[in-house]
Amino acid sequence: MAFFSRFFSTPERAPLPTLEELLGARSLTADLPELAPLKADFLALNAAERAHWADAIADLLGHGWPLPPVWLDAQYELAPELVPSWVAEKEGLYAKPVFEGLSIRIRACGQVMPAAWLAIWGVTAAEVTDRALEQLLEHSKGVAFQRLPSGIYQGRFPDGFSASRMLLPELWRGLFPGQNTFVAVPSRDTLLVSPQVLLPKLVDAVVKDLAGPGPRLLATIFQQIDDKFMPANLQDPHPIAQPQRELRQADLLDAYRAQEAELTSDLGVPAPVGVLKTQQGRSVSMATWLEGQPTLLPETDLVGFVARNGQPLGLYFSRTLPRINELRGSLVEIWGPRRVRYEGFPTVAQLERLECFADGDQMAGIFKAAQAPAQRAQPGAYQDPAASGGMSGQASSPVPQHLRGLSLGRQDKD
Q1: What is this structure's pTM?
Q2: Does the structure show a pLDDT above 70 at 334?
Q3: What is each CA distance from 373 to 327, 391, 401, 403, 409, in whole angstroms?
Q4: CB 234: neighbour CB atoms within 10 A?
Q5: What pLDDT, on the 0 to 100 scale, is given for residue 297?
Q6: 49-61 b/e (C-beta count within 10 Å ≥ 16 → b)
Q7: Distance (Å, rounded) from C-alpha 283 to C-alpha 29?
Q8: Cα separation of 385 and 364, whole Å?
Q9: Are 95 and 104 in contact (CB under 8 A)?
């Protein structure tokens, strides 16, 4: 019998680690009031799952993020939310890129969900996202899109997250049957849908919404191609090509300006960014690099160099910077768009290797024009981009007021 007992006897199981032991090993206490509702789920876990659960608790507390509500309650109060991708990177909470420049995050019981909540709930991100989209679709029933006098359609939903309906094209894909569909989400509570023939009206609506009080989302206009969305790729001489270019530049500059507040002085000085126009009406982004200090250079179309004594040395195409192989930068580790840190400054001889956009005298003329008093735009002065070839002089225009309408002597071939 002793021989057979070795085959049929159940080995003794090691005792499962307690919550107190696991949190104590992570220099945490189990006496937190917020933990009490979650302990019942913890007791159903095996040893490995308990360790993973405790790691998630430590991650939340280490970042100062809240502990999650109980899954039995949270699963019925989920909502997907679109945010600029740079915002998602900055916050560090759970987010997944869905469209260029936009990411989806999840709100549970009104709180933005950190990724660690998933481990505590024992569910996957895909499960939570699917549930959130199903609930958003259910909450969207009975709310019709509003046809504006311009002919485009606007979605306004009572929950204040109208832009999230971009994730549910089944709600609006039939508004313009047989036509190319364009979508914009300039603010969190605005979803605009337009056919191609009404694109100038869509630009008007985007600019108007950006000037409003709603939380800014993204100015860029998207085009729906099958089940995918991508920034509308409109080439010159299409009348909306230039406004779309300016809207995309506005999104980039918005991210760079928000990023500046997070850069520490020991890294260097952020190069000022802006947008200027050529005589042909094409807008180009520009960064100004000042000699004499470490510079954090953003990714722009042009780089303007200024000597230590304030003398402008010229504007050059940034894509040709690698021609100065003696000047090497290091990538700055920060959320959002790229910046490269440079400690040196190119010599005049090295600048001659670059492709020139405007020489020093022409750049000085730009600076002189920038110092002139800016003309204030009159209320309602926004012009149809199809007629003007560009954005208006409203405050919401992405072109800085002091750089609008500038003429350059030497310009690109565009």
Answers
A1: 0.83
A2: yes
A3: 37, 20, 10, 11, 22
A4: 19
A5: 97
A6: ebeebbebbbbbb
A7: 57
A8: 29
A9: yes
